[in-house]
Design a protein that fits this description.
Blueprint (H helix, E strand, L loop, with lengths): L3 H4 L16 H17 L5 E4 L2 H8 L14 E5 L5 E4 L1 H10 L8 E3 L14 H15 L7 E3 L4 H9 L4 E3 L1 H8 L4 H24 L6 H15 L3 E9 L20 E10 L2 E2 L2 E7 L4 H20 L6 H7 L19 E4 L6 E5 L16 E9 L6 E11 L2 E4 L9 E3 L3
Parallel strand pairs: 1-5, 3-4, 5-6, 10-16
Antiparallel strand pairs: 1-2, 2-3, 7-8, 8-9, 8-10, 11-12, 11-13, 13-14, 14-15
Helix pairs in contact: 2-7, 5-6, 8-9, 10-11
Amino acid sequence: MEGFGPVMNTPGHMGVDFEMRVDFDRLRNYRLARAREVLENSDFGALLLFDFYNIRYVTSTWVGGALGDKMTRYCLLTRGGEPIIWDFGSAARHHQLFAPWLEPDNCRAGMLGLRGAIAPRAGLFELAVKEIVGLLADAGVLDQPIGLDIVELPFLFELQKAGVDVRDAQQTMLDARVIKNQDEVMLLSQAAAMVDGVYQDIFEALKPGVRENEIVALANKRLYEMGSDQVEAINAVSGERCNPHPHNFTDRIIRPGDQAFFDIIHSYNGYRTCYYRTLSVGSSTAVQRDVYTKAREWMDTAIDLVKPGVSTDVIATAWPAATEFGFPNEMAAFGLQFGHGLGLGLHERPVISRLNSIADPIELKVGMVFALETYCPATDGISAARIEEEIVVTETGPAILSKFPAQELMIANKY
């Protein structure tokens, strides 16, 4: 992790000749090497991947988000082999022209079922499996288990019909992705810096008469102007909608004295943010300030525990139990006192919660990046505070990527 410190400073987003910034060749090589390492350490002869984030991790290819849930793009990585990507025909041609890190013959046109829109009787699943079986045989791994992350059932049935021993590779790929190199951390930091700026815009725009959806529109516009490649979601929650947390936005008109919180989830060069902030509109009540103070204390307690070697159950149990803030059990309160890894995916490892971390703790290691989230409902039955910080585990402890002020409840357009 040499050079880990300077990446926290978030140099400019463009590549230049006078500063070392993101080295995309190093990034691509690191990710593929990590995938090869976990493959070699597994029982698999190959990895067959449909998860968009796993495909990007291994092949460094990307197409528009509209295709992200269609289960049509896939890639194959065999022991000792080079990645092979199947994509929409024209996208495969584009990879041949503009992705020189991939062998041109390994960028292939592919089409399966578009989540059932093309029925299995058309034979596309059968043709794809026949091709893959041939490649596995050529690589000498057909007699070994094949790791598969996610899949449409007709494709799985065809693999089984062909005698392929299919096993779960999602766990394997999440293990590969959990430790970020300096380029991944820099991209995560740059993505967070964009959100810093959007929160300044929200702070200035948040006033009575503005609707939640207008704040969402503002955030989307600014993020895309700054170079975001995907705005995955914006939560905008105000007034009586704060308690309980609905995890969405509406057309509600924001009113004087409302407490409001927002979550900005977008990616820059594929790397995600998850970044909550809570503001009050014009003024705040003692109750609103009190719950914010509690949420901040819970956050600071968790951050202080972050260092290499600490296990995630230590952080999870430092937060209040679900019954302490109005929920009957941890399942009902999941996602409120919460941590989750950040990277190409929004929810990577480690996931930190009383629901899972006590039974299955994970040791924190240098290079992990995750978000910590706290939530405190107010006794007025309406208000609530929600805070989130993005953390990098370094040799000396936590480094914070999310910079917009959150140590105390800020009041937008104060009267």
